[in-house]
Amino acid sequence: MSVRATVPLPGPRSPSATRPTVEALEEERDRLQATVRALRTALRVVENVSSAFERERILAAVTDALTRSFGAAAARVWLVGRGDLCKTCDLADRCQNRKSCLHLVEHGGLAALDRVLRRVPIGDFSVGRVAAQGGMITCDRLEQEPGLADPDWARIERLKSFAGYPLIHEGRLLGVVAMWSRDRLRDEVLEALRILARQAATAIAGAQLIHHVRAESEKSQAATRQIEALVQASRSGVLLVDRHGRVAFVNSAFRRLFALDDHELTGWPVAAVEAAARPVLGTQSLQGEDRELLLHLPGEPKPRVLRSYSAQVSGASGDPIGWMGVYDDVTRDREVDRMKTEFISTVSHELRTPLTSIKASMALLLSENPGLDDEATGLLQVSKRNADRLVRLVNDILDVSKIEAGRLQLDLKDHDVRALCVEAVAGVEGFAQKVGVAVRLAIDDGLPRVHADSDRVVQVLTNLLSNALKFSPRNASVDVAARRRGTAVVFAVRDCGPGIPLEFRDKLFTKFAQADRARREQEGTGLGLAISRALVLAHGGEIWVESEPGKGAAFFFTLPLAGG
Amino acid sequence: MARILVIDDDPDIRFVARIALRCGKHEVTVAESGRDALMHLDSGAPCDLVLCDRMMPEMSGMETLAEVRRRRSGVPFVFLTAKAQKDEIEEGLRMGACRYLTKPFEPAELLGEINRILAA
Lengths: 564, 120
What we know:
The complex is a heterodimer.
Chain A: E1 2-4, H1 22-51, H2 55-69, E2 74-82, E3 100-109, E4 119-120, H3 125-133, E5 136-139, H4 151-156, E6 161-169, E7 172-181, H5 187-233, E8 237-242, E9 247-250, H6 252-257, H7 270-276, H8 278-281, E10 290-295, E11 304-314, E12 320-329, H9 331-368, H10 374-404, E13 413-415, H11 417-435, E14 438-443, E15 450-452, H12 454-470, E16 477-485, E17 488-494, H13 528-538, E18 543-547, E19 553-560
Parallel strand pairs in A: 14-16
Antiparallel strand pairs in A: 1-5, 2-3, 2-7, 3-4, 5-6, 6-7, 8-9, 8-12, 10-11, 11-12, 13-15, 16-17, 17-19, 18-19
Chain B: E1 3-7, H1 11-22, E2 27-31, H2 34-42, E3 49-52, H3 61-71, E4 77-81, H4 86-94, E5 99-102, H5 107-119
Parallel strand pairs in B: 1-2, 1-3, 3-4, 4-5
Helix pairs in contact in B: 1-5, 2-3
């Protein structure tokens, strides 16, 4: 068996030493005519093969040409494929690879006897070696060839010769085409095999590519259909505009929202859509980053509120290919928000008015009636204290509602840190005296001013101070400190109380979190730290606690410097 | 001693405000509505300070403020109200109220504030 990378076309024979006989010349003429016929056939097949997209048609054309026009007794094509039959394959124990092997996909001419090599390991037998070596292998004495896959078949069918050629496209091995013949394989046949194999490789690669593209396109079409179905089912109106400003897509919610059910819209310029929607849209534009549109729909007394977002849409390469708009009907949300705010405001007002009368009455009775006995005074004090607590609760609930509704308004101005601390300390002086705890101020000199809402900062400080005083033992002290840290001022409120258990620290800044319910004192609403946290965050600051059980707690928060 | 006109639709508030201010030896007249208060002023009664609620039926505190300013521009007008939102306070002061006090109030503090305004 010999390996040839290429086979030269049969050229004119060099003049031999002896004068050719007439018979020899006639023989030569016949041979050349046969070569021309063979090459013509090969070219015709090549043309057919090149225009065929189906893999099966290409391969059938190749084996057909080899058996009918080039004297092959048998012709077969294997293509490289996944190692799929390893569990049952007779050759599995000879196979090194297991990941891929040659799959028999087409055969023409003689059928095999019994051993049909449906799978051939790359590198094994003649066919496998063609694949492994990437070049043509020929053999003119099959009866002497030791490594035949089926020597009986070759003997019974009197097969003399073999030629195999790899199918290679752009350096990639696709498979092997092989032929067996009862005659010696002449050069023109080998050349025809080479041409056929080359063209078949190109055509097979093309067919594989087309198959791949088709599969991908079907997948992507399925994905597109799914996305389209999703967008169609969306309750948000969706509009997609191409880079020429024309509508590429709208969903039914869009048509419904803008009362455009009777219009086709796809392909329309956006200006035309806006013009068609003018009765409900007025002069508002459909494009805009994030804003509200008011729609006056026929038969509806109040305008609808639409939240509209638009964004540029980019293609795979990142270039803008247009823009999309999404439109949500938030009429109900806005109405609910408004009602909620109104409700909170009303409730807090309605609660404050009777509380005002109760509190003021108690205070007046206590201050203006020196004749009251101790028990009566005590009862009045209980009532007044609890009325005060109710007022604090109302205030805290109102604050929490505002924070949760995102309606917290800060009146940001530049403030002196010491003045803020002094104001807060003055506010808790009465309480500090009552519990017998001293409040000490340690404010660094020359601190820059902070940019903050003074009422809210005093509220946070008061809150932290009240907590610190509440948990301090008698005759202890609470320290208020402030110092600069980078572009912020850090405030600290320290006490010498029992400290905060580790497992409670995470919950500390949440609503209604009080560590020790038994210790819970009547002054607290359980909302103070949650509100403080929200207020500090709204200023762009941080709030945290450091505590060692038994050694007190220190609360810290930061506020941005003025002009920062 | 000053003559103070208290305007509030809630009789209990009128009652406690009157007692709280009387503790400062002030002479208190109460009105249950803006219209009532204007009638009092239109009768030519002397008045040194007006203490007025904001949320009242018929005529609001803001409307009352405007009418009072037309009649007695020099008389200090003080709001005493549960409407304590920042923007509400600012609006009240912008419209010509000289002080904005919020409910609930401590009688002693209310008296202190009123005395300070009268002294100014």
